[in-house]
Every structure is written in structure tokens, then in C-alpha cells.
Amino acid sequence: MPGDHRRIRGPEESQPPQLYAADEEEAPGARDPTRLRPVYARAGLLSQAKGSAYLEAGGTKVLCAVSGPRQAEGGERGGGPAGAGGEAPAALRGRLLCDFRRAPFAGRRRRAPPGGCEERELALALQEALEPAVRLGRYPRAQLEVSALLLEDGGSALAAALTAAALALADAGVEMYDLVVGCGLSLAPGPAPTWLLDPTRLEEERAAAGLTVALMPVLNQVAGLLGSGEGGLTESWAEAVRLGLEGCQRLYPVLQQSLVRAARRRGAAAQP
Amino acid sequence: MASVALSEAEKVYIVHGVQEDLRVDGRGCEDYRCVEVETDVVSNTSGSARVKLGHTDILVGVKAEMGTPKLEKPNEGYLEFFVDCSASATPEFEGRGGDDLGTEIANTLYRIFNNKSSVDLKTLCISPREHCWILYVDVLLLECGGNLFDAISIAVKAALFNTRIPRVRVLEDEEGSKDIELSDDPYDCIRLSVENIPCIVTLCKIGYRHVVDATLQEEACSLASLLVSVTSKGVVTCMRKVGKGSLDPESIFEMMETGKRVGKVLHASLQSVLHKEESLGPKRQKVGFLG
Question: Which pTM does this prediction carry?
Fold first, then answer.
């Protein structure tokens, strides 16, 4: 990897042998477009973080930790009218700093740790999706740090990271309006393009377009939306958004149960 | 982005006006401000364009350089985007302040061009696996007056329309060494087809309605916006929600339809202006920065 001579002693550039191999991967089989992979969610597993969550969906494994609230750097003096419910005025509102990191062994090709623009784009997407849900006005001059670590990319990584981050924030006891649930979609190419919910890595690689939606299920508000590719006309994208929102609603009970279990565990540990 | 100080009364005024389809400068909710586009303003580039949209001023320069193609796509060239938010746009961009916004805009540009149909990358290939054209698209933000994404996408499309890449041939010797030959005629060049290059339409949610082409003051009143990238045929290539607030699913569908409608009109007028400017030929009067 260019530049990192202290840790890696080897040639400047290296490629995995799969690039030169003949293309003999099996094509993803036909499946129900609305199936969601079984999800394992656990909150409250890291001892050093204020709140944490681990989410596994198919081959995608994400670990998220929340720390804070601590004093924000570069504070500004603020004034102006206070918001409703005793919240701080706009200039004193808290900040949410999100960080998205991909482990170097997460994908098929090794990616050096400072991932560059893709990770920053996903971190920005995380922040834009989590901000509507967190009551930042209740944390004046403070900042909350959310860091998501993708351990293995098995498809719809951003959606899993969003869900894990929202669970971790809830586990940390941060005041929120609602949980944020994320869902990924991809458009399978071909003569009759169909949108597939919760794609695997293979389906995502062969897709003509991809979309991630984040929903606040109880309020029924879309907190985040990020999609690109040759999705076609607006009707096709609208259908994809509807499918994604429905998937998010179906995922919500699983997350509620994991939070209840974490609270019980914490209660049982505190007793003796 | 540049922040503007608005009092509560001004915000209420803007929001109530938008509900009645009447904005502060008299436009309707789906009207753009007056756009001025001029191409071929910088002489050292392969193509350039300058766009003025109200108070927003963008300068784009495209430079074509030869390089090696990417390993996964050996028969294609590629585009590299770089956005520079200079301190002259607003004092907040001094030093490293504008870097975050610049990276965000560059990432959005990569996303909207990230599909096979936007630009025909095979025309940029010189010899497979060895040489290809890399187009470095550099965007310079000269003045920030709201609605940056739209102005930048218009400028990028105009600059790519204006880009002239010299025709190059790779000759092989008997020993197998390759020699690159540039054509003698300086006007013999490849032009890119910009038919399918998308333009971004940003729709800001203000109150219960959404507006196109928001000024800085209107952006301060809006909590959430939807960014839609539309081609001239109405095909959507990218969608993104921007901002701190959340959106209702129904408003997202409405905003997509508006974005498609407005985008088609924008493309039609941009195409006609670009063709008209080109038909004036090399003798046309260049306004540049003096107008």
C-alpha cells in the first residue's frame, strides 16, 4: 500500500490474484424480492463505550459504539430564542460526529485503513440520517461521537451501520424521538428489472442501481435516503422507496426486543 | 455552506410566502433564477465553463491528460472530480474550512456520474490496458449564494460540452515499442456527447411545500432537502436527502416528480443555449469576468 512503509515491508503496489482469474462466480439465484435476511442484533456489549450495538444480517457484520456527551470543541457563543420543550437555542445545540470505518479485510480486496472519500461520504450519510432522530437541543455545547466499524461487507452495509448506530445511541441513553431503521435495496439488471430488498454482496455488485433508506418507524418519517445508478424513471425509484420503507417497518420489532433484553441484562448485573 | 443571520419574523415571512407560491423575489416555487452560462473562458484547459446563478458563481475547468486505465475497466478512461471552495466565496471557507463541503460536493459528483450511460467512457480509451484519457474536472467556487449543487452540475455539463480532446494515435514499432503521435491539425479533436449527462435539482422543503433553487435565506428556513439528479430524458441517476430534518414519504414522491419536471426543462434550455453559443463561432464576444 503506497506510503505505509513502517508497517508493511513489501512492494508498493499489490493486487489480489482474483483479478486475473477467469470469471467463474456463480450468478445470484432467483429469490423473493421482499425477503429480509434474518437479523441478529445485540445492544450493550462494549464495556468501554457509553452505548454500543452489534448487528449481523446475512454476511454483513457491523459494530457501533457511542461516546459522550462531552464538551464540544470550538464552542460558539449563542443567543436567540429557545426551542420548544426546554431545548437550547439553535446556536448552542449539540453536535453529532459520525465516523464510518471499514476493516481492511471487510471486502474482497484489502483496503488500507485511511479509506478516503467513500468512508467520509458514508459517515456524512450516517450523520444526516441520525440527526433528525436525536434531540440535540437537550445537549447544549456538547458533542456525541458515533463510530461504526464494518467488520464484513455482505451487502447493504450502510443500512446495517445506520441501524446499529441508532441502537447504540438508544443503548447509551441519548434522548431520541424515535429509532432509525435502515434498509438497502438494489436493482437487478436484465430484461425485467426488479428491486431486491436487502441484497447480498453478489447482488449488489451486479446491480444497476442501489438505494439505502432510513426510516423512523413510529413517526413514519424518512430520516435518510441515498441512492445512485441507472434506476430508470421516477416511478421505479418511488416503488423502491416504498419497498424499503416496508422492510424497515418489518425490522423494527427485532430491534425493540434487543433493547429490552439489553436493559434486562443491565438490570440483572446491577442488582447483586 | 455560508450561513446567513435571519430573524424569526423573516423566517415566518418566507415560510408563509412559500405556502402561497410566492417567494421573496417574486418567483414561483418551481422557477429558477436567471442563469448565465459561458464556455471557453479559460485558455489553458481542454474545456471550461462559468455559470452565474443569482449570487452563486462557479468556474469549471476540464483538463485531459493521458494515463493508465483502472485495472477493473481496462477499456475505458475515467473522470476525476475536485471541488475547491475558496475563501473568496464566504469567510467561513478560510483555511481548511471549505474542505468538508468540497469533499461532499465531489462525492456527489462521483455518484451522479457513476453509471454506464452518463458519459461514454469507451471514447476515452486510446489503447486497452495501456493508455487512456483521464479528464480532471476541477470546480472552483467563486461566490456562494445558495443552491450550489445545481449550479455546479450545470457548469460541469457545459464544460464537458466544451471539452476538446486531441486525437492521438499509438503507433507500434517493429521492436514493439509504442510511440504516441498527436495529430498535426490543432482542431482535430474528439468531443464528448453530453446528451445523457445529468443535472442536479435540489428541492428544499419549506413548511408544507418545496421550492427549487433556494437562495441562502430560503435554505436557512428549510430543514431538509432532496437532491435529485435527472438526465434530459427524465431518468433519475441519483437521489439523496440532505439536511438535519426528516421528510414525509409522500413529500418525497412529490419532490421526485417536481425534480423530474423541472430537470427536463432545465436540460432543454441549457442545450439550446450551448448550441446557440457554439453556433456564434470563434468570433463571438467573450464576456468573461468583466460583464
Answer: 0.89
